[in-house]
TrEMBL record:
The lineage of its organism: Bacteria, Bacillati, Actinomycetota, Actinomycetes, Streptosporangiales. It comes from Actinomadura algeriensis. It comes from the Bacteria. InterPro entries: Glyco_trans_2-like, Nucleotide-diphossugar_trans. Residues 13-141 form the Glycosyltransferase 2-like domain. Residues 241-279 are annotated as: Disordered. This is Glycosyltransferase involved in cell wall biosynthesis. Pfam families: Glycos_transf_2.
Length: 279
């Protein structure tokens, strides 16, 4: 049973896209085919992030097995695009992933199962012991990613890989966290997860198959300083320690007893490896 089954849309996936005309058609093709095979109705939201190529037209004219909706975001930055996309969602389960589909979409089967089980935040982790990761094209990028994640683990609820572009949430939680999001650049994942953790959400990390794709817009030379500044701002804003108002996660997903407020441990799911290699 595919996504054209009767009933409401239960899953919406946001794809931020800045000048992705070259990679978007293949990415949308893979994603649409995978979503069509899931037992829930799903939709894709492509966020055109101030592109100057044909990105918007590709999304607008897309015809495939699942609907694709176009959202415009004129503020530059991946964080700004993801925020706009999440705020445009309406489904009970939402997520986002990169246009290059670097993460094998077979993991969506396990994501869906965990969301159905009531897990409020499910993230792909390239540092999970069961993940299969193709080496970064540039060793300096891998070193930078490891260092970055060690610095921010306390902010993001202990997540070992905050930057994998494969994250899913309970819809109301994602929309509330996105509304509070202020980071427009590449460090936005840290702030988004921090807002979820402050609301009592436990983060479940799952193994993924991840392949480095050429054409990444992130540059260690051009973006590292901005990322450090953003992290300093995120820490400063989190310094007050007040629980976030608004959406709270169900009691069973709250912080274990004995832990400090907001210190929600990451749960690593052993699922997912069995699904590797499928669509």
């Amino acid at each position: 049973m595919g996504t054209w089954c009767a009933g409401p849309v239960l899953l919406e996936i946001v794809v931020p896209a800045h000048n992705e005309a070259g990679r978007l058609p293949a990415g949308l093709g893979l994603l649409s085919d995978k979503l069509a095979g899931l037992p829930v109705r799903a939709e894709v939201i492509v966020v055109d992030n101030a592109s100057t190529d044909g990105t918007a037209e590709i999304a607008r004219s897309w015809r495939g097995p699942v609907p694709v909706r176009l959202v415009r975001c004129d503020r530059r930055g991946k964080g700004a695009a993801v925020r706009a996309g999440l705020l445009a969602t309406r489904a009970p389960w939402v997520g986002f992933m990169d246009a290059d589909m670097a993460t094998d979409l077979a993991a969506l089967d396990d994501v869906l199962g965990l969301l159905r089980d009531g897990r409020p935040v499910v993230v792909g982790s390239r540092r999970h012991e069961r993940s299969i990761v193709q080496a970064y094209a540039l060793p300096v990028r891998r070193l930078g990613a490891v260092t970055f994640n060690r610095i921010v683990r306390d902010l993001a609820g202990g997540v070992a890989d905050t930057q994998c572009g494969f994250k899913f949430f309970a819809g109301p939680l994602a929309r509330a966290a996105a509304a509070d999001l202020r980071t427009a650049g590449f460090s936005f994942d840290v702030e988004l997860l921090a807002h979820c953790v402050r609301r009592g959400a436990e983060v479940t990390a799952i193994p993924v198959v991840w392949r480095d794709r050429p054409g990444s817009t992130f540059s260690v030379r051009r973006h590292s300083l901005r990322c450090l500044i953003d992290l300093a701002l995120i820490r400063a804003r989190a310094g007050g320690g007040r629980p976030a108002e608004g959406v709270r996660v169900p009691p069973q997903a709250s912080a274990p007893s004995g832990e400090a407020p907001g210190a929600v441990a990451v749960r690593e799911s052993p699922r997912a490896a069995s699904g590797f290699g499928r669509g």
